[in-house]
Design brief:
The protein is 20% helix and 39% strand. With 312 residues, the chain is of the alpha+beta class. The strands form 4 sheets. A 7-stranded antiparallel beta sheet has the order 2-3-4-8-7-6-5, with helices on both faces. A hairpin with a 6-residue loop joins strand 3 and strand 4. It is elongated and about 60 Å long.
């Protein structure tokens, strides 16, 4: 009993030195990765994740391509000692085995501690980056951050309404697309008949998002649209078959069609790119379908395009 009592007191002292965890995992809107934030942290206002009241402690949560996790694991296994004095560590979570690092640095003139963690997901890799300024490090300690990392968890689905609701425009017609995935939270999504596991290229899919670059002169729109079309990721052996100005919901736009091949099976596809020009930003829609499915798919593509409305 004489030994047990001091140990119990020590355990209580250590526990009281750590900021407590909230009760339940919190998922940033549109993301499948979540965790239980430490007390004093709440949902961030300008990025997906958490922050303290004055915004000095930041926890960024995002999704990376599925290969990112294995690349990090391979790098850690190849160099267990780490580089530049930063030694990788690992921790078990309900999402799977996570790898993380901790290092000191500067944010401007402020000394900070930075932590990063990557976890496996189905069709994606979950990533968390934490920044703690020196004046908060006695509360948000290494052990406290590790404790928070250990609560990382993954939800299987994010509702279409939740993902679409984050966009800066309204999508009023999904045209039968069932699979909705966020590409950039609050900025772009993919609508598809396929899914991440089977791949998107063999069936119709659309990517909706905003682009910041907008031609200043109407005469530059054709060149701008064609250059953008030829840079569509994953599209190879391309040939522009049509490119012309159109009106999209009473706004100036441009339609460009491209034939090419896509995916590891080199599926022959036809792609249409619509750009609806605005002031500071433009709406860009990329829609792809195998050529033998093009006719029906194009009707659906137009229904989605014409149903996109401004918010407010």
């Amino acid at each position: 009993m004489k030994l047990i009592r001091p140990l119990a007191a020590l355990a209580l002292l250590v526990a009281s030195a750590l900021p407590a965890l909230a009760a339940d995992a919190v998922y940033p809107p549109g993301l499948r990765l979540g965790m239980v934030p430490l007390v004093g942290l709440s949902k961030a206002k300008t990025f997906p994740g958490f922050e303290n009241e004055d915004g000095s402690v930041k926890v960024l949560i995002t999704e990376l391509p599925p290969a990112a996790y294995n690349e990090v694991v391979s790098a850690f296994n190849a160099n267990p000692a780490g580089t530049n004095g930063v030694k990788p560590d690992k921790i078990e979570t309900s999402a799977g085995l996570a790898y993380f690092t901790a290092e000191s640095g500067k944010a401007g003139d402020t000394l900070v501690k930075r932590y990063s963690m990557i976890v496996p997901g189905t069709g994606f890799s979950g990533y968390v980056a934490v920044q703690v300024p020196e004046n908060a490090s006695k509360i948000y300690t290494d052990e406290a951050v590790r404790q928070m990392f250990a609560t990382a968890t993954i939800r299987k689905e994010v509702s279409a309404d939740e993902q679409i609701g984050l966009l800066p425009f309204k999508v009023t017609d999904l045209a039968g697309f069932k699979d909705v995935r966020t590409l950039v939270p609050g900025s772009s999504i993919i609508l598809a008949d396929g899914n991440e596991s089977s791949g998107y290229e063999s069936k119709p899919f659309m990517i909706l998002g905003l682009i910041g670059a907008t031609p200043q002169q109407a005469d530059d729109r054709a060149r701008f649209a064609q250059e953008a079309a030829l840079q569509i990721p994953g599209l190879r052996e391309t040939r522009i078959t049509m490119s012309e100005p159109i009106r999209i919901n009473s706004q100036p736009g441009f339609e460009t069609r491209i034939d090419g091949v896509s995916g590891k099976d080199k599926t022959p596809v036809t792609v249409v790119q619509w750009i609806r020009f605005g002031g500071g930003t433009s709406l860009r829609i990329i829609a792809s379908a195998p050529r033998d499915q093009w006719s029906d798919a194009f009707t659906r593509f137009r229904a989605v395009r014409d149903g996109i409305q401004p918010k407010g």
